[in-house]
Amino acid sequence: MKVTEATESQQRAHMALLEAKKLTSQYQKEADKCNSGMETCEEAREKAEAALVSQKEQSAMWELRACQRGWKEAGVRGRARSQGGVEAF
Predict the structure, then answer these.
(1) Is pTM, for the whole model, over 0.85?
(2) 20 to 30 A Cα–Cα from 47, which one of 18, 24, 29, 38?
(3) Can you give 10-51 as a three-state secondary structure string?
């Protein structure tokens, strides 16, 4: 009788271990998907940031060229740029 109980107990423990391994595997897969998504998102953010910097530089260059050809902008933004500063948008 004790052998039967021990065997049943061992089988339950084995099944519990298999279920825990299965759940661990599922959680790991979800974590990997999440990490991959975060990396993709971070890469997209970095590309967008680089594109914004490039656009700001181009805008400042075209505004400088326009000012050199006589264009005048009303307000503070024009004065700040004409003094050499490029303000953040």
Answers:
(1) no
(2) 29
(3) HHHHHHHHHHHHHHHHHHHHHHHHHHHHHHHHHHHHHHHHHH
